[in-house]
Amino acid sequence: MSQDMISVDEARQRAIELAGNARFRMPVEEVDLFAAVGRVAAADLTSDIDVAPFDNTAMDGFAVVASSLKDASEEAPVDLEIVDWVGAGVVSEVVLKPGEAIRIMTGGIMPQGADAVVKIEDTTFTGDGGVGERVRIFAPVTKTNVRKAGEEAKAGDVVVRKGEVIRAATVGLLASTGNTVVPVHARPKAGVISIGTELVAPSVKPEPGKIRDANAYVLGAYALELGCEVNLYPIVRDDEAAIRALFEQAIDECDFVVSSGGASNGDFDYAIETVRGLGEVVFDCVSLRPGKAQAFGCVGDTLVEVLSGNPAAAAVGFQLFGRPALRAMQGYAELDRPVSDAILAQPTRKKEARAFYQRGHLEIGENGELLVCQEEKQSSALLSEMNRSTVLIELPQGTGTFEVGTPVKCLHLDIDEGVVI
User: In 3-state terms, what secondary structure has residue 223?
Assistant: First the structure.
C-alpha cells in the first residue's frame, strides 16, 4: 500500500538514517596505499617513528654555530673554515666548533655542534667551497633554516584519524610514517536493474515502440564514481514474476540495488510493491519534480532504491537519495554536496506544489553576482539537459512565479561533499 507523500528533506533523512544502520556499513579490509585513495580510513593510523627522524637543513648552504656570527656585517664579514661537505643521506662525523662551517645540501642531517644553516646565496667562498676552503658570511643568523626532528609527527602520533578520506597527500603522509597498508571500508557491490518491455540494449537499433536503455548506464556510472563495483543486470520486461526474480537475485548478490522503471502506479508498475513484499520501504512518494514516484528501502542486509523510468528523474533521484546512502555505507562523514546561493537569471512559474529541482548552471553576472541559468528544457525524459547541468536549482514547495533576481539554493553536481565554497 502506498505511503503518504513526504518532502525531499524528509526522504533524504529517512534514506540516510537507514543507510547509516550498522548492518549496512561495509566491512573493513586492508589495502595498499594506492588502492586506498578516495576511500575512508576505518581506524586511527599512527606514525612508527619521528618524522623527520632527525634535525635537517631546509636548504643548501653552510651549517654553522650561530653564536660565531653574532658580529658579522657587510663591513666586517666573518670567515669560517669549511671542514666537511654533507649531502642528503650522509652523516657527518665532524663535531662542528665555532669558527668552522660544513657545506650541506637540502635534507642533510644537521651535524653535531651546528645550530643553524646560512643559505648559499648569502655567502661567498674560495675555490669550489669544498673542504679546506673558506666561506664568508655577511650577517648574523636571524633564521636557523633547520627542520626539527618530529616536526611532522612524533612516534605514536595519530597522523590520520578514523573517518578521514584518503587523498594523494594523505598517501604520502602514510608512507612517511610507515603505514604501507590501510584499513578502509570495502567498496559496495551495486546492482543496476532496468525495467521495461520497451527497452533494448544500446547496441540494438530500436524498432517502433522500443527505446535504448540509458538509465542503467547513468546509474551504473554514478555508482562507479562512488567507487562501487557495478553489476548491470539484463533488462527485465514488465512481468511481475520476472521482476521479483531479478530483484531477489540482485539483492542476494549485491550490497545496494538500484532500479529504474516500474515505479509509478500504472498497470505494469511492479517495482515498489515487489520490494515492499520482500522487505521494507521507508518512503515511496516524494514531493519532488522530477521523480515523485520513487522508493527507498531494504531487503535483509541490502539497500534498495527504486527510481522512475524517466532518465532525468532517475538521475536526480539517485543524486538526492542514492548517493548519500552509498557514501554512508562506506563510512564517509560528509554526505551533502555543497549548496550555493544564487539568483535566477530567468523567470519561472510553478503550477505544482511539489519542490522542483531544475537542471541548470552558474554564471557570473555583470556586477559580480552569482547567477543561475535554467537549462532550456526541463523534461524528466531528457538526459541532454542533465548532461549540461552543474547544479540542481531548488524551487521550494508551493506554487507561484519566481521572478528574475529571486534568490535560490543550488545543489552542486560538480563539487564533492565536504568542499567549502
Answer: helix
Residue 48 one-letter amino acid: D
Alpha carbon distances (Å) from 36 to 126, 190, 254, 376: 52, 19, 21, 41
Q: How does 341-371 read in b/e, with b if 16+ C-beta sit within 10 Å? A: ebebbeebebeeebbbbbbbbbeeeeeeeeb
Residue range 403-410: average pLDDT?
Answer: 96
Query: In the prediction, which pLDDT does 2 show?
Result: 67
Q: Give the per-residue pLDDT at 266.
A: 76
pLDDT given at position 398: 93
Which residues touch 77 (CB under 8 Å, ≥6 apart)?
Answer: 136, 137, 138
Q: How far is C-alpha 70 from the geometric centre of its chain's CA atoms?
A: 51
CA distance linking residue 393 with residue 355, whole number of Å:
10
What are the distances in angstroms from CA 298 to CA 99, 153, 266, 285? 77, 44, 23, 16
Q: What is the pTM of this model?
A: 0.88
Q: How far apart are CA 232 and CA 199, in angstroms?
A: 14
Q: Give the DSSP H/E element, type plus range, for residue 244.
A: helix 240-253
Residue 414, sorted as left (phi over 0), alpha (psi -120 to 50) or beta, turns out to be alpha
Across all residues in the chain, what is the average pLDDT? 96
How many angstroms separate the CA atoms of 409 and 414, rounded? 15
CA distance 22 to 255: 13
> Rounded to whole angstroms, how far apart are CA atoms 103 and 414?
50
Strand ranges inside 195-325, DSSP E: 199-200, 211-212, 229-232, 256-260, 280-283, 288-289, 295-299, 302-307
- Cα angle 257, 298, 275 (rounded to 5 degrees) comes to 80
- Does the pLDDT at position 269 exceed 90? no
CA distances from 18 to 4, 238, 261, 303 (A): 18, 29, 23, 8
pLDDT at 3 over 90: no
What pLDDT, on a 0 to 100 scale, did the predictor assign at position 215?
97
Q: Distance between CA 398 and CA 138 in Å, rounded?
A: 75
Q: What is the DSSP string of 205-216?
A: PPPTT-EE--HH
C-alpha cell at 107: 635534507
User: In which residue are the cell numbers 534568490 written?
Assistant: 407
Q: Compute the distance between CA of residue 140 and CA of residue 133 in angstroms, rounded to an integer.
A: 21
Residue whose grid cell is 543561475: 372
